[in-house]
Amino acid sequence: MGLGWDVHRITAGRPMILGGVTVPCEFGLEGHSDADVLAHAITDAILGAAALGDIGMHFPDSDPKWKGCDSLVFLRHARDLVVQKGYTIVNVDSTIILERPKLKDFRIAIRARVAETLGLDVDRVSVKFKTAEKVGPVGEGRSAESQAIVTLER
Ligand code: C5P
Ligand code: MG
């Protein structure tokens, strides 16, 4: 099993990309890559399950190569690394914590995009959504967080 967590600051003038899906919104997420907070958490969970370090070790944010990068590239790379080690991904569960917009209408699209990237059936990929009840930086609309857990089998 592997655990992943990520946070990105909310800012105007950037897209809101979650699990490779662009969610229509008047603000987005700040970051060196496309700031896909969900893809980053799932990538860390995959790497963590195989003790392969973390996303920053494989894709340093100081490297101009990853500027504006589609984070599904990171996700796919993490999957390829664990497959090379003889593992298959059993399932992915995740939560995005974001005050707004409402994400439930995008659940199927996000699950499908992550599943396709990882070469999994969609019923092996779960994505949940929570607000932070207006409390703290997430609740005040200043950031978005994501958590993920991944199981592998050999
Ligand atoms: O945070 P809270 O428990 O109030 O969220 C209730 C429901 O609203 C969640 O279970 C989820 O289905 C949905 N939700 C959403 N988009 C968000 C936050 C929550 O669709 N950004
Ligand atoms: Mg990140």
Structure description:
The protein is an alpha+beta fold and 154 residues long. The protein has one domain (2-153): 2-C-methyl-D-erythritol 2,4-cyclodiphosphate synthase (60s Ribosomal Protein L30, Chain: A), CATH 3.30.1330.50. The protein contains five helices and seven strands. It has helices at residues 37-49, 55-58, 72-84, 107-118, 136-139; strands at residues 2-12, 16-18, 21-23, 27-29, 88-97, 125-130, 143-153. The protein has a five-stranded mixed β-sheet. Strands 2-3 form a two-stranded antiparallel ribbon. A hairpin with a 2-residue loop joins strand 2 (16-18) and strand 3. The longest helix has 13 residues, at 37-49. The protein binds cytidine-5'-monophosphate (C5P) and magnesium ion. Cytidine-5'-monophosphate binds at residues 98, 100, 102-104, 129-131.
Main β-sheet, spatial strand arrangement = 4-1-7-5-6
CATH architecture: 2-Layer Sandwich
Q: What fraction of residues sit in β-strands? A: 25-35%
Give helix % range. 25-40%
> Compounds present?
cytidine-5'-monophosphate, magnesium ion
For the terminal residues, how far apart are their CA atoms? 12 Å
Number of helices: 5
Total number of distinct structural domains: 1
Q: Quick one: CATH class?
A: Alpha Beta
Strand elements, count:
7
Shape summary: globular
| Biggest sheet character | 5 strands, mixed
**Which regions contain 5 or more consecutive residues with pLDDT less than 50?**
none
The named CATH superfamily: 2-C-methyl-D-erythritol 2,4-cyclodiphosphate synthase
Could you give a short description of this structure?
The protein is α+β, with helices and mostly antiparallel strands. Helices cover 30% and strands 31% of the residues. The chain has one domain: 2-C-methyl-D-erythritol 2,4-cyclodiphosphate synthase (60s Ribosomal Protein L30, Chain: A), CATH 3.30.1330.
